[in-house]
Fold this protein.
Amino acid sequence: GINFNDFVNQFRIEAVKEKLAAGEFRRQTLLGIAYDCGFNSKATFNRAFKKATGQSPKDYLAALR
């Protein structure tokens, strides 16, 4: 029921969330984590993250801390 890009981005977002939960944000930037998980631009990452979680990446990270 979803398009291919959204399908792939779901896996990428889960990878980002796992890295954030593991404390990876202490060693590299949020954008660096996004790039490591397969995103090619900040705008695409922010849009996909908000669509998947209902929160911006920054707000999600603040809630983890």
Remarks:
- The two ends are 34 Å apart (CA to CA).
